[in-house]
Design goal:
five-stranded antiparallel sheet; single chain; alpha+beta
């Protein structure tokens, strides 16, 4: 009888050890999955920000490289949709390629405001799924002539 009792004790100790090991691996797995998900989200946000900065800088460079009025800027953006006076939008898909409104994931809103001999441009890149502003850039150009 003592042999049976000894084996029972060893078996239950082995099961307890196995359960603790499984719980430990499950906890480590949960932490690793959380780290991978957080890393993926941060990577996506970084890509989104980098692309938005690049698009905004492109608008600014076009404005600075032309005579600075909206018509000369729009010559470089044939897919742009002109809004009111001094306002236009360019839509981008999830890969930041220019597209139409129906496939758009992002929009570049550009507002140009003349102020005497100064042309101001406000550029906003917005995610359309939740209307979150990703990046904003304010640009100023001296026009060498009074306008507006």
């Amino acid at each position: 009888m003592t042999v049976n009792k000894y084996l029972k004790s060893k078996t239950s100790l082995f099961l307890m050890e196995l359960i603790i090991t499984i719980l430990l691996f499950a906890a480590c797995g949960a932490v690793c999955v959380k780290l991978f998900v957080t890393s993926y989200v941060m990577t996506q946000e970084t890509v989104e920000l980098n692309e938005s900065v690049s698009i905004a800088q492109g608008f600014a460079e076009v404005m600075r490289g032309t005579d600075g009025d909206i018509d000369s800027v729009l010559e470089h953006y044939p897919d742009a949709i002109r809004g009111g006076e001094g306002f236009f939008e360019v839509f981008y898909d999830s890969e930041f390629e220019v597209c139409g409104f129906e496939n758009a994931a992002y929009v570049g809103d550009v507002t140009m405001t003349p102020n005497g001999a100064i042309q101001n441009m406000e550029i906003r890149i917005v995610r359309l799924s939740d209307y979150t502003e990703i990046y904003t850039l304010d640009v100023t150009k001296y026009m060498n002539r009074t306008k507006g």
